[in-house]
């Protein structure tokens, strides 16, 4: 996805999260034990404000955390107040990213880098949590194919490296195969090798000790430990998926 598409996805998923949350703030999140819808709204809103401080104000992670205000208390401000606050935080981040431009240098998880990092990071964070909130009141809508494919790329490029030794293994391999219509041959396929230094990913068709087939949305949600393997087609050694579920915390 390009910079414009990621910023649009961030806005769209934020608005969809707020719409799904209305009327359900006290409902539990089925996919994340111990969380309620209201807590997810607060979490995503504060994450947006935190990232806005990083992009707009040139803060690092710790400085941005200290600059955050308190979460609004739904018992005090009510549902309308909480969702208005969330909308303001969304506007704050989208405006900061738009004003800075994608090439603006700022702090990121991997050192100083372009602000497009935060377009991608917050779009995917918000999309997965929108799916969480959707699930509190019914069947959650899947992530769009392009967004989900890019989300898997983010896991491959960013989170696997951050997890590092947590994904160290004996060389077992896991192949992912997105089955969405319209994908070119080899597109939407990845293979992870869990070696002594962590996970190494290769793109394209391959065989793995375990293989998983499903929509890009379900594959991404599996990597985020949001859906069980039984939701997808699984072939080969199921312990490889168990290894990921146990070790990977995104």
Write the layout of secondary structure elements.
Layout: H1 3-21, H2 37-57, H3 61-67, H4 74-100, E1 105-108, E2 111-114, H5 116-134, H6 145-163, E3 172-178, E4 189-195, E5 198-203, E6 210-214, H7 216-223, E7 233-236, H8 238-247
Parallel strand pairs: 3-6
Antiparallel strand pairs: 1-2, 3-4, 4-5, 6-7
Helix pairs in contact: 1-4, 1-5, 2-3, 2-4, 2-5, 5-6, 6-7
List keywords for this structure.
250 residues; Four Helix Bundle (Hemerythrin (Met), subunit A); Nonspecific Lipid-transfer Protein, Chain A; 5-stranded mixed beta sheet; two-stranded antiparallel sheet; 8 helices; globular
3D structure, described in words:
The protein is an alpha+beta fold and 250 residues long. It contains 8 helices and 7 strands; from the N terminus they run ααααββααββββαβα. It has helices at residues 3-21, 37-57, 61-67, 74-100, 116-134, 145-163, 216-223, 238-247; strands at 105-108, 111-114, 172-178, 189-195, 198-203, 210-214, 233-236. A 5-stranded mixed beta sheet has the order 5-4-3-6-7. Strands 1-2 form a two-stranded antiparallel ribbon. Strand 1 (105-108) and strand 2 form a beta hairpin. Helix 1 (3-21) runs antiparallel to helix 4, helix 1 runs parallel beside helix 5 (116-134) and helix 2 packs parallel to helix 4. It is globular.
Q: Rg, please?
A: 18 Å
Q: What is the level-2 CATH architecture name of the largest domain?
A: Up-down Bundle
Please report the total strand number as a whole number: 7
Structural class: alpha+beta
Please bin the fraction of helical residues. 40-55%
Task: Report the biggest beta sheet as strand number plus sense, adding barrel if it closes.
Answer: 5 strands, mixed
């Amino acid at each position: 996805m390009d910079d414009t598409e990621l910023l649009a996805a961030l806005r769209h998923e934020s608005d969809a999260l707020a719409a799904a949350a209305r009327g359900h703030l006290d409902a539990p999140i089925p996919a994340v034990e111990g969380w309620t819808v209201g807590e997810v709204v607060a979490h995503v809103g504060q994450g947006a404000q935190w990232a806005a401080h990083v992009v707009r104000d040139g803060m690092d992670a710790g400085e941005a955390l200290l600059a955050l205000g308190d979460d609004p208390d739904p018992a005090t401000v009510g549902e309308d107040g909480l969702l208005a606050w969330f909308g303001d935080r969304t506007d704050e981040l989208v405006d900061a990213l738009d004003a800075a431009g994608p090439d603006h240098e700022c702090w990121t998880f991997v050192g100083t880098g372009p602000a497009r990092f935060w377009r991608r990071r917050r779009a995917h964070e918000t999309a997965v949590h929108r799916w969480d909130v959707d699930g509190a009141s019914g069947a959650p809508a899947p992530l769009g194919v392009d967004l989900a494919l890019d989300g898997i790329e983010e896991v491959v490029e960013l989170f696997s490296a951050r997890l590092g030794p947590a994904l160290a293994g004996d060389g077992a391999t896991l192949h992912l195969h997105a089955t969405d219509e319209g994908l070119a041959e080899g597109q939407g396929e990845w293979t992870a090798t869990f070696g002594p230094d962590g996970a190494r990913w290769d793109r394209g068709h391959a065989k793995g000790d375990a293989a998983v087939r499903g929509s890009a949305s379900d594959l991404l949600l599996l990597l985020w430990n949001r859906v069980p393997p039984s939701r997808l087609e699984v072939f080969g050694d199921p312990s490889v998926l168990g290894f990921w579920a146990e070790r990977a915390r995104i």
